[in-house]
Amino acid sequence: MSVLGSLSEELLKRAIETVSTSDDIFQTNQDDTKSYGDFVLMSLPNNLWFSVKSGFSRERLLASGFSNDLVGVGFFEEPTEFTSRHKVRNFKKAGFLAIYLPDVAVTEEQHDGTTSTYAEVQEFYNQAEGVAPLNINGTQFFRPLSELGSDIKSLLDQDLQRRSTLNF
Question: What is the pTM of this model?
């Protein structure tokens, strides 16, 4: 794993720790489950897996999971990785319910243009398609990274017996 990858995982771990101390969400460390994702949140009907990537998604996000309920998280730099209908379709087929994109500048170019990967992806869909993609549950597929903590907290605030990924 790269240094940036390790830092990205550590940042998500710390973000999770700020919203919850629940044992229902944890980092995966076992080799036989690491391929599903980096973190897992116990949920029904399926556990929610978080795949943390850094910089560029390339095809690495698609290697996560195995058709489980997945969430992509990362400091993705290139908005065009998320504007292809074909790639979005493949993300959904792989089981992704959401991909959290940075809503702060992560490159010098974004900083100079006062934009972010999330803002550029939203702008593309607003102009080209009129609406951003929705997931299988009918909710936003691309989400701002700054909302990840509150989305995790809203799930963890529910008893496990009532915690569902069906509206995520």
Answer: 0.90
Please compute, for residue 63, the number of CA atoms within 13 A of its CA located in the half-sphere on the CB side.
9
56, amino acid identity:
F
Task: State how far the Cα of 14 lies from the Cα of 43, in Å rounded to an integer.
Answer: 21
* pLDDT tens-digit series, residues 118-141: 999 999 999 976 789 999 999 999
The closest alpha carbon to 27, from 5, 47, 12, belongs to 12
User: Angle at Cα 22 formed by Cα 17 and Cα 25, nearest 5°?
Assistant: 75
In whole angstroms, what is the distance from residue 10 CA to residue 8 CA?
A: 5
Q: How far apart are CA 12 and CA 17, in angstroms?
A: 9
